[in-house]
Queue: 2 jobs
Job 1
Amino acid sequence: MKFFIDTANLDQIKEAQALGVLDGVTTNPSLMAKEGITGKDNILKHYVNICNIVEGDVSAEVVATDLDGMIREGEELADLHEQIVVKIPMIKDGVKALKYFSDKGIRTNCTLVFSAGQALLAAKAGATYVSPFLGRLDDISTDGLNLISEIRLIYDNYDFETQILAASIRHTMHVIDCAKIGADVMTGPLSSIEGLLKHPLTDIGLQQFLADYRKGNS
Ligand code: E4P
């Protein structure tokens, strides 16, 4: 399972990268705005800065909603850096854009996916990644993990190469459950990754080992 961090915060990205288990970054316009990154030039520079920190894929989202606009923006984003993956919303022109980029060998991440049907369409159009938003489904009392399972089943039925990027991860159990289902990638906050290392018995055990060592070596 690949680990992506879902943020545009450079300090958090550096911290995740330093852990040694980071495979990429996802961003979206809201995450960029949260960091105060505004204006086209600053936004493009920020994507390059992110690419220079991580070794893996960096999703950069288009804001156009028509085919020509998405193609123009997506090509500009893809030209920025070889690590850029163009993030395209699951709308009708988005599906056409996925197909266009797929035919050109430009990698894509189909975002805002909330149903198995949308995920099927994204795979048919040749998306590199599909991003089902499981946390946002959970938020409205709908089982987000069930959607990940449905997509896994459909993709395996037909050997689709599109990778399932479980998005809108909110906590560590989401990561573990997605790994059990077989999602190819998860993207979430740093806390969802760091939560994986925590166990009270590890802390208690370590304290005991160190105390016993000190007794015999003081
Ligand atoms: C996916 O790529 C999105 O950036 C993200 O996972 C959305 O998460 P949220 O629902 O926590 O905003």
Job 2
Amino acid sequence: KPVFKIEDLHVSVEGKEILKGLNLQINGGEIHAVMGPNGTGKSTLASALMGHPHYEVTAGRVELDGEDILEMATDERARAGLFLAMQYPSEVPGVSNANFMRQALNARLGEGNELPVLKFHRTLQEKMKKLNIDPVFAERYLNEGFSGGEKKRNEILQMSMLEPRIAILDEIDSGLDIDALKIVANGVNEVKSDKIGFLVITHYQRLLNYIVPDYVHVMMQGRIVKSGDAKLAEELEAKGYDWLKAELGIEE
Ligand code: ADP
Ligand code: MG
Ligand code: MG
């Protein structure tokens, strides 16, 4: 059962402090939702956790199973079991989806533990079927010409192939219609187990009707300012963020 701890995390982008002392612990089997207004640093959190070079960690600690994540390069973090589904997945012309996933999976499994090619393709086909992804997608170039919904489903496919220990989903719901949203949520619910913890970042409560969080955290101005259960998300949906800003004395 993984244990992921973020302690007093401070992150700057181009010299400007965006995350200002963020604390969060995610254990295996738990789904944590992070909600918050636009521009509050949610994507910054996701990128910093994966080690994106634009995001400078100026203070704090991040541990996965007692190991210091911040000391690791991005590929080492992936190997340790961190996974990020991005808000804007990039297109990689010239690399097929299947090849990209095989390389990512082999990197995750480590030298000597690679999946045999046939077994890989069989697993990939099974998972694609479950996620309602047309088998031809395996041979298309990564994300090139994919619709928004297809890109998001593809991120979930990568997640289910890689079997991460901590999965971070950054606005996986943005731009999805309700059918695509349900497919993505089903994918998450299928992968869910004690062996994986989820950090689900979203601006809207709607996603949380389908991926039911154990904890909901509100992020404002680079910190978690309030935590609760799924009811907190419903309250935010009904009342917006302004009442909370007023309650907490936050001006933006
Ligand atoms: P959210 O995901 O909550 O909408 P972001 O993390 O994307 O918020 O952005 C938080 C702040 O950091 C914003 O003011 C944004 O302009 C700034 N920021 C984030 N990433 C970058 C970047 N790569 N370059 C410059 N500014 C950035
Ligand atoms: Mg945003
Ligand atoms: Mg964002």
